[in-house]
Write a structure and sequence with these properties.
This protein is mainly alpha-helical. The chain has three domains: 100 residues, Fumarase C, Chain B, domain 1; 249 residues, Fumarase C, Chain A, domain 2 (Up-down Bundle); 85 residues, Ribonucleotide Reductase Protein R1, domain 1, CATH 1.10.40. It has 19 helices and six strands. A two-stranded antiparallel ribbon has the order 1-2. It binds arginine.
């Protein structure tokens, strides 16, 4: 089969080199965007009088026929083509003849591939956006059921202060909301048409770049043709957003795995999202969460692949850039799969409120509230802190909790203690008084929930 570059060459490409060079096996997924871009280009070429209108019409009909045939399974994308662009152009010409050869006027594969990738990633970003929204909605719904479920909050994975499970969950909703924002922001720079940059220098044909961009629903055109063909920032940015999403899901996964362990038993995953062991009959493992955590590594790797591939490239196009696709495609696939499984997994968890409450009862996580109590009675906080530290040490020595100490015992440490110390350190009160903006009290959590819901409705 003839290559696009026939004319200059006397020999066929070596078979091994041909295989090595081809991106068809992985860029075939951009067939639709390639056709969309070509239809827009052919429309503009005729509009500008650069090619005859009959040829443009034949090209467009031919391209749409190819699209229909690919989607119906009637046309298989294979053969010794260098990439999806060559495949479609060759198929077009073999179907409609001479007119097909005019499609590539005032265009190069360099601006063509840059356009296709932008269009493809734009549509994938929209899917990721939908999946993210759905997950945020799931997190919010679960949080809404637990605005007053008391659990133990941790720092350094040591018991710290009582919090509400709803607030803990909403922390993830806010992370994912920022991801949503990042995705939208990324789209601003992605949704720009490079078409018309041609090989690298632009063209002498009287093209209308903005018209093509408008047909494709893009927000503008790239302003420098060298940059137009060699910019892959948009792919790198998306790979970063995917990394960030995976990092958030991975942290969430880590907690889910911990919470499912016998040591915590805060939640139980539904059987339909758990796996067993081939040897240990008692096992119920959180494989899905572990895999989300595990796959985060490859998504980071893809980002590194892209940044490293780009770092030494002279302007403008270099074949190295063909390597952008597998990396960013893998990130997209991975993040989509992870988001799609995470939401129903989370929706199916059973929350063990009693165990959460029991864990909150030990570990002296109301000690800060004791110190706050003393400082509200006039003692400087640092002195109050010290007294409570001594009380905790006393409790450990005497195997008691702060709730179990008598008032006489309290007063041995400070005569500021009165009978109201018990309500000051009551776990429910510890939680319900933290009404500061963003705090853990049920009313603060409800306010956070409203923010999330409002952002989702936008
Ligand atoms: N398959 C190529 C890529 O993905 C398309 C552009 C090829 N351009 C070229 N001059 N060889 O980057």
């Amino acid at each position: 089969m003839d290559k696009l570059w026939t004319g200059r060459f006397k020999k066929r490409l070596n078979d091994k080199a041909d295989d090595f060079n081809s991106s068809l096996p992985f860029d075939m997924r951009m067939y639709k965007q390639d056709i969309e871009g070509s239809v827009a280009h052919a429309t503009m070429l005729a509009e500008q009088g650069i090619i005859p209108r009959e040829d443009s019409e034949a090209i467009i009909t031919g391209l749409l026929g190819i699209l229909t045939d690919i989607e119906s399974g009637g046309l298989a994308i294979d053969g010794e083509y260098e990439d999806i662009h060559s495949f479609i152009e060759s198929t077009l010409t073999s179907r409609i003849g001479e007119a097909g050869k005019r499609l590539h006027t005032a265009r190069s594969r360099n601006d063509q591939v840059a356009l296709d990738l932008r269009l493809y990633l734009r549509s994938e970003s929209e899917e990721i956006e939908g999946l993210l929204r759905n997950l945020i909605g799931t997190v919010a719904a679960l949080a809404g059921n637990h605005t007053d479920t008391v659990m133990c909050g941790y720092t350094h994975l040591q018991r710290a202060q009582p919090i509400t499970f709803g607030q803990h969950l909403l922390a993830y909703a806010f992370m994912l909301l920022r991801d949503l924002d990042r995705l939208r922001d990324c789209k601003k720079r992605m949704n720009i048409s490079p078409l018309g940059s041609c090989a690298l220098a632009g063209t002498g044909f009287d093209i209308n770049r903005m018209y093509v961009a408008e047909i494709l629903g893009m927000d503008g055109v790239s302003e420098n043709s060298l940059d137009g063909v060699s910019d892959r920032d948009f792919a790198s940015e998306l790979a970063f957003v995917a990394s960030m999403i995976m990092m958030h899901l991975s942290r969430f996964s880590e907690e889910i795995i911990l919470w499912c362990s016998w040591e915590f038993k805060y939640i139980e995953l539904d059987d339909s999202f758990s796996t067993g062991s081939s040897i240990m009959p008692q096992k119920k493992n959180a494989d899905i969460a572990e895999l989300v955590r595990g796959k985060t590594g490859r998504v980071y790797g893809n980002l590194m692949t892209l940044l490293t591939m780009l770092k030494g490239l002279p302007l403008a196009y270099n074949k190295d850039m063909q390597e952008d696709k597998e990396a960013v495609f893998d990130s997209i696939d991975t993040v989509k799969n992870a988001l799609a499984v995470f939401a129903p997994m989370l929706a199916s968890i059973r929350v063990n409120k009693d165990n959460m409450r029991k864990a909150a009862a030990t570990g002296f996580i109301n000690a800060t509230d004791g110190a706050d109590y003393l400082s509200s009675k006039g003692l400087p906080f640092r002195s109050a802190y010290k007294i409570m530290g001594e009380l905790v040490a006393y409790c450990i020595d005497n195997k008691k909790t702060l709730e179990e100490l008598t008032l006489a015992e309290y007063r041995r440490f400070s005569d500021l203690f009165d009978g109201d110390i018990y309500s000051a350190i009551d776990m429910n009160n510890c939680v319900s008084k933290r009404v500061s903006r963003g705090g853990t009290a049920p009313q603060s959590v409800s306010a956070q929930l409203d923010i999330i819901k409002k952002a989702l409705a936008e």
